[in-house]
Each structure stands twice: as C-alpha cells, then as structure tokens.
Design goal:
Elements (H helix, E strand, L loop, with lengths): L10 H21 L6 E10 L2 E10 L8 E7 L5 H13 L6 H14 L8 E7 L2 E6 L2 E6 L2 H12 L6 H7 L8
Antiparallel strand pairs: 1-2, 2-3, 3-4, 4-5, 5-6
C-alpha cells in the first residue's frame, strides 16, 4: 500500500486501515444471533385463519436447549403491548410461575417489544440463563432470568404449546434430518 507521497504505508497504519474497513462486517457478525447455530425448521402461526407471523429456529444439536435463536417475521401490524400480553397468556398455561412473576415479566416485555409492521422481525436468543431480543437487526435488550428465558421459549418449544403444528415444523432439521 502506498502513502499519498508514494512511499509504502507502515505496517501499523496498514493494519489500522484494514481493521477500519472490516469493522462494519465484524460488528454484524458479532450481533448476528444465529451465528454458530444450525438452521432447523420454520413454519407459520395463524390466528382465525390470518397469517400472524412466520417463525424460524436456529439451534445447536438439540433444538430444545440453549443456545438457540427464534425469529418471528410479522405479517400484520401488532402493538408491542399486545405481543407481551399474548406471551404472558401462553406462559400462564404452563403453570411454571405465580401471577406476581407473570405480571412483572409482562411489564418487562411491554417495555422491550416494539410495535411491529408487516416484514418486521424480532429474534429472540436463548443463551444460558438469559433471553436477548433483536428487532430488525438491532438489539432491543435482554432479560437476565433463567426462569423467564425457559418460560418464554416454551411458548413455541414445549410439548404443551398451543401451536403443536408450528412446534413440529420448527423442530425439523433444515437439512431434512430430524
């Protein structure tokens, strides 16, 4: 690499320039919630015959254990508070926690989840003892409670889910195995 004066750039300067050029790509790779995970299945969630969202699952060798990432791509306008309320309704059916905890979790989700429009995607990451959420590629926030993370992802992955067809579709391996 030549400097403006025709002399070669120093090795330190060259490393700095290459590092700066690669920075946007490195930032994306670090923030990709599916990085290092295998593509599993995908399916649709419908309510009263209307397509609400499409879901896709990425996980390690066991899609029922963290780490995993679940992407919901919305096909309707939905308020973030409605997403939080529906999530609490689904978690309640499992009987895992008391009403006070459900109320607290509902408040956390209502603050965290944005209103969505058709084409918007929310990705939930289930890492060991934490749930991390992204909206259209940007970090929304995290809930550092193992019980919350377990209960939240149970909405789609627990055998008692209210959407067993979607669960079955998510648990199919993307490579045809599973």
């Amino acid at each position: 690499m030549l400097k403006g004066n025709g002399r070669p750039a120093s090795p330190c300067r060259r490393e700095l320039l290459l590092g700066l050029a690669a920075a946007p790509f490195a930032a994306w790779a670090v923030n990709d919630p599916t990085a290092g995970l295998l593509r599993w299945g995908s399916g649709e969630f419908r309510r009263f015959g209307f397509l609400v969202y499409e879901a896709s699952l990425w996980a390690g060798d066991d899609p029922l254990r963290p780490p995993l990432a679940l992407q919901l791509t919305y096909r309707r306008n939905i308020a973030g508070t409605a997403i939080a309320e529906a999530s609490i309704k689904e978690i309640r059916q499992f009987g895992l926690v008391d009403e006070a905890t459900l109320t607290r979790w509902g408040g956390l989700m209502a603050e965290l989840f944005p209103d969505v429009r058709p084409g918007d995607a929310i990705v939930g990451e289930y890492r060991q003892e934490v749930a991390i959420f992204h909206h259209n590629g940007r970090l929304l926030g995290r809930v550092d409670e193992a019980g919350f993370a377990r209960a939240f992802f149970a909405i789609w992955l627990d055998a008692r889910t209210s959407a067993p067809g979607l669960r079955a579709a998510l648990l199919k391996r993307g490579d045809g195995r599973g």
